[in-house]
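Inputs:
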Amino acid sequence: MNAENLSAGATRKFQLSKLVQLAAGQLDIAIRAADSDIDALAQAVSRIAGLTDVARRSCDGVGEELRTYAQAAVVAMQFHDQLVQRIEHVRNVLANAATALEKANVAVDGIEAQEFINQICALYSLEDERILFEAIVAGSDGHVRDVVGGDSRRGSIELF
Amino acid sequence: MEQGQPVKKRIMTVDDSLSMRQMVRATLERAGYEVVEASDGVDALSYAREHPVDLVITDVNMPRMDGISLVRALRALDAYRLTPIILLTTESRQERKLEGKKAGATGWMVKPFDPEQLLATMTRVLQ
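Outputs:
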C-alpha cells in the first residue's frame, strides 16, 4: 500500500468516523426530544393513579377496575427508562467506534480490538443485549431472530 | 404536627430517570409515605449526610456514582448502617446482584416494578 492509498484510506476512515458520530448524535437528540413529553405522560399517569383511590371510595366496581388499569399503566410507563438505556448503549458504542476510527493512521492490533470489544460488552445491562452481542460479535451458536426483547427476570424481587 | 398523627416514613428514591422517580413517588405517596428524590448517587449521598431517611430505593446504573457505590457509601455513615436499601434496576446479571448484596443492600428488584409488589416489599423491610 503506497502513501497515496494510505491517505485515501485515512480519509475514508475519517469520513466514516464522522458518519458514525452523526448517528450517535442523532440518537442523543432522540433521547432528549422525548424528555418533556414523557415527563408530562408520567405526571398524568401518576395523577390518574391517585384519582383511582377517590373513585374506589365513591363507586367500588368502577373504582376497582380503574385501579387495575392505573397499576398496569404505572408498570407500562417504565418502558421509557429501558428504551432510553438501550438507545444510550447504542449511542455509546457508536461514539466509541467513531473514536477508534479517528485513529486513521494507527494500526489496531488484536489486543486493542479485544479491549474495544470488551468495553462495548461492559456497557450492557440488559439480558437480551448481552445475548445479541454474543450471537453477533462473539459468534455464539445463537441466532439474532431468537433474541426476544425483555428479560425473564423483570419484576422479580429478592431480599437478601 | 398534630398530637396523635402518625409520623410518615421518609423514603429516598434515587434514579437518573425523572419518569422512574415520578412512578416511584406516585406509588409511595399514595400509600402514605413521604418521598424525597435524588438524580444520582452523588446527590443522594449529599442529602443523606444531612438528613436521615427510613428507606432508600436506588437504581444501579447512574452517572457520577452508581447504586452499588452508593450503598457502600451509605453503609459507611453511622445513621445508615441499618437503613433498608433496595436496588431497583434493569440490571439482571447475577454477579452484579452479588456485588449489591456484598455492598450491604437489603434487596434487589428488577424493573419494571409492580406497585403492589413494591409496597409489599417495603412494608416487609420496614417492619
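Remarks. The first helix of chain A runs from residue 3 to 33. The helical segments of chain A are 3-33, 35-58, 60-77, 79-102, 110-123, 127-136.
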